[in-house]
């Protein structure tokens, strides 16, 4: 899967930056024309940033001295909007904090909810995800109480975008569907489009490509130019996202068509330069994959130049990785290494760990001599990322829970004197409801984590196999060198014997016969030495090939050391593992892991037998135990059994499960091999 994280980050906040801050017209500011004048000047594109900030500050100074009424709050939000558009985050936060405090003091729930949304936008821009999530969640709750379905759905969508950016895809998906349910009977084409677009992006990340295409098509169909202005370039954005799905499917001809359609949208390069740059890069990459040379590498360079001018570091990273791949395919190793190293350096500088993984992976491919170093760092960073991702989802659920708890405590303090029994009953029911929801969501997160971990484990295993093969190749090469040196040394001895024998031809006495016999004995000794050395080297070479068997044996040894069950394993020595594809070996290894884990957790078996043999053009893996067994027809298929079925299907194999309660279990897997 391409490194699309940077693209999505921009796309998800695209609508916030553009649709946010629609100006609210004042109804009566006849006595405050100076405010309108200053706010207008603060929005003037031709003025310098410093001047615009000065005018905005003057407007703020006038508004802050006025009564705390609805007009004052509207004007404060207008001041905040201008700070937002100027990227003056200090002024933006200060203004929003003032309007939030004023709204709270006057118990103005509508503007409190709006201010919470603005605060969420601030912390989101600063990449402080937990604070952003807390404020979005607060605004969501308030709009729900106000029955403002449009803004309620908008708050849910803001939360979904944040959850996606933190790689909490399942929670993001749930939030989007909640938003869609809220606006089911509302006229909200903009939210409908953003929801479908985000769902398409989520399913693309989860490799559910059919669903991704379905929702991107829905997004395209829902674009209403009367609601979403043309300058937002929604169509170009969706066409780019659709193309990315087909890129991940390696259907580059279809991807190319979508990217070309996206680039054909009017005024794209001026209205949404970052979308234009993405389309250029993606089009170039698909043309490269289709072996089309027209426009290459110029399209890559054009996109890189534009992204560099916009300061889009993640986009620059991906451009350089694509250029590295392109030059590697052209056998220009110098440029390929140059762009990969530049990409890795940029990702380290910006502390983007996912991009660091991409840079290390590319360098391991084009610099095989250093692949072991790159692979070790890749595995270390990948393990750290897995641990971090595991904590992110929990962080958001904890914020929701704690925010709910605070709100419940405030409600309790104001109502406890009226009806204590009612409050305690309500809190108990709410606690039970929260517990049920959290339990279900925890199960969903666990399933998602295991799926992600499985993909990472496969990649790590591939790297491990590659590293072992490299090490063993070097060992074999070294032993061949040693064999040649031994052989040459022995030949030297033989040459000396031959010279001595020739010299004896000139001697015709009694000692000549004895000397000839001695030299013949020496020749036989040398011949035996050569034969033993050659046999030993050939035998060790064949043993080194079977490193996969060693990996399986290590798994079995760990099982024997950790669990009480007696394990008997039989592996057919006639299987030529060097001819079996890595994909089949990886899946067989994972199937063995899952089977042993299931036996250890549920079977309570005393004896386990595992047999791996070859019959004609098939590999047969048979795993049996004398545990408690189960009813195959009625038993639920947990994630372990699903993984075994999935991996067997990946190998085009078949699974046969025989089990009865109290009679143990036999699982037979048959996989075709060439």
Automatic annotation (TrEMBL):
Record EC number: 2.7.13.3
PROSITE patterns (UniProt xref): HIS_KIN, PROKAR_LIPOPROTEIN, TPR
Keyword field: ATP-binding, Coiled coil, Kinase, Membrane, Nucleotide-binding, Phosphoprotein, TPR repeat, Transferase, Transmembrane, Transmembrane helix, Two-component regulatory system
Histidine kinase domain: residues covered: 588-674
Catalytic activity: ATP + protein L-histidine = ADP + protein N-phospho-L-histidine
PANTHER family in alphabetical order: NITRATE/NITRITE SENSOR PROTEIN NARX-RELATED, NITRATE_NITRITE SENSOR PROTEIN NARQ
Record keyword Transmembrane present: yes
UniProt cross-references to InterPro entries, sorted A to Z: HATPase_C_sf, HATPase_dom, His_kinase_dom, Sensor_HK_TwoCompSys, Sig_transdc_His_kin_sub3_dim/P, TPR-like_helical_dom_sf, TPR_rpt
Ranges that cross the membrane: 420-437
Name of the protein: histidine kinase
Residue stretches of each TPR repeat: 193-226
Keyword Cell membrane found: no
CDD domains, per the entry: HATPase_UhpB-NarQ-NarX-like
Pfam families reported in the protein's UniProt record: HATPase_c, HisKA_3, TPR_12
One GO cellular component term: membrane
Positions in coiled-coil regions: 516-543
Listed SUPFAM superfamilies: ATPase domain of HSP90 chaperone/DNA topoisomerase II/histidine kinase, TPR-like
GO MF: ATP binding; phosphorelay sensor kinase activity; protein dimerization activity
